[in-house]
């Protein structure tokens, strides 16, 4: 085979990073992530720095050697940098997923405060974990919002953090099971993420070729649906590329395994939300520990790894 001939999918090196978000949210979430790392296909986790059980999550990551990234949080709970004013409400809490975006769009948020908070969360991670994060992504996808993206890319470059997430999922329009309100938000995230690619690349920040996780969130993570999404990603990417022998295809699968949060316990300062207290997290945990999923990955020559292994 010459270098100009596409390598067959059977011989192609396929990498799947299965990253669990919200590590530290509560004891139940921590337990689920550890179990899915031990018994399932989860290969890394993103740590919420201001979460109720973040310190316990760090201890668990050390005990079980879970590769850790930073889950940048600008929307939920209390900020790390206590001097922030425009980021928070009168109660001292971050504004929330939609109100943060609205305030940013209206020019109500001081961008210097965003930079201060990004740096504070990264410094907290380094001081607490003892190393740089393997990656940085955003809680509720804040890292691809244009103003945040520019700031984060600069901070990552200055500190030598090389991997982020680009939440662009293909074929979202075909996912009829997603309600329209959620799909509308996802489409706005994808639009921002497409633009964020250019910014991150200009700063030397890397990301997986492909992404899955919007269409398989919570109860929507059914094994046939997940397997089809993974298979389609690799097939489409390989048909698109002029593949050389040493070429690698990397896909990130965003997951949220865990057990039901207990009302009043957990979160980032306001207690757990309804999603955390639902059975959706447990549904993901069961799917990710499925022997059928492991067999599917093995039979399709898909190697599960962390961003740390791709450095």
Word description of this protein:
Helix 1 (27-39) packs parallel to helix 2 (54-64). The radius of gyration is 19 Å and the shape is globular. The protein has ten helices and seven strands. The chain has helices at 27-39, 54-64, 97-105, 111-129, 146-159, 180-202, 223-240, 274-277, 280-288, 291-299, and strands at residues 13-23, 44-47, 68-72, 136-138, 210-212, 248-255, 302-305. It is an alpha/beta fold and 311 residues long. Strands 1, 2, 3, 4, 5, 6 and 7 form a seven-stranded parallel sheet that branches.
Layout of strands and helices, then pairs:
Blueprint: E1 13-23, H1 27-39, E2 44-47, H2 54-64, E3 68-72, H3 97-105, H4 111-129, E4 136-138, H5 146-159, H6 180-202, E5 210-212, H7 223-240, E6 248-255, H8 274-277, H9 280-288, H10 291-299, E7 302-305
Parallel strand pairs: 1-2, 1-6, 1-7, 2-3, 3-4, 5-6
Describe the structure concisely for a colleague.
By secondary structure, the protein is an alpha/beta fold.
Which characteristics define this entry?
single chain, disordered N terminus, 311 residues, alpha/beta, 7-stranded parallel sheet, globular
**Biggest β-sheet strands, sense, barrel:** 7 strands, parallel
**How would you state the average pLDDT, rounded?**
91
- Which series of helices and strands comes N to C? EHEHEHHEHHEHEHHHE
Spans of at least 5 consecutive residues whose pLDDT stays below 50 are 1-7
Beta-sheet strand percentage? Answer: 5-15%
Helix/strand class: alpha/beta
Helical segment tally?
10
Fraction of residues in helix: 40-55%
User: How far do the termini sit from each other?
Assistant: 28 Å
Total number of strands: 7
**Mass-distribution shape:** globular
């Amino acid at each position: 085979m010459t270098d100009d001939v596409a390598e067959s999918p059977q011989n192609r090196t396929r990498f799947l990073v299965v990253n669990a978000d919200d590590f530290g949210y509560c004891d139940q979430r921590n337990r689920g992530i550890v179990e899915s790392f031990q018994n399932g296909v989860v290969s890394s986790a993103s740590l919420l720095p201001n979460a109720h059980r973040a310190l316990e999550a760090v201890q668990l990551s050390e005990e079980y050697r879970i590769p850790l990234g930073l889950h940048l949080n600008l929307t939920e709970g209390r900020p790390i940098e206590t001097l922030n004013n425009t980021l928070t409400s009168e109660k001292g809490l971050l504004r929330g997923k939609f109100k943060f975006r609205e305030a940013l769009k209206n020019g109500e948020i001081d961008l210097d405060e965003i930079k201060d908070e990004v740096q504070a969360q990264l410094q907290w991670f380094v001081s607490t974990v003892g190393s740089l994060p393997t990656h940085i992504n955003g809680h509720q996808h804040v890292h691809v919002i244009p103003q945040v993206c520019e700031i984060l890319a600069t901070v990552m470059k200055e500190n030598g953090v090389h991997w982020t997430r680009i939440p662009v999922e293909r074929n979202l329009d075909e996912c009829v099971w997603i309600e329209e309100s959620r799909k509308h938000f996802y489409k706005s995230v994808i639009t921002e993420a497409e633009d964020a690619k250019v910014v991150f690349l200009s700063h030397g920040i890397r990301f997986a070729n492909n992404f899955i996780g919007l269409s398989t969130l919570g109860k929507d993570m059914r094994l046939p649906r997940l397997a089809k999404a993974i298979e389609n990603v690799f097939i489409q990417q390989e048909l698109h590329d002029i593949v050389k022998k040493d070429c690698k295809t990397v896909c990130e699968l965003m997951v949220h395994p865990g057990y039901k949060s207990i009302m009043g316990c957990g979160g980032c300062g306001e207690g757990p939300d309804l999603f955390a207290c639902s059975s959706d997290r447990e549904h993901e945990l069961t799917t990710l520990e499925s022997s059928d999923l492991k067999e599917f990955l093995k039979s399709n020559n898909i190697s599960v790894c962390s961003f740390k292994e791709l450095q």
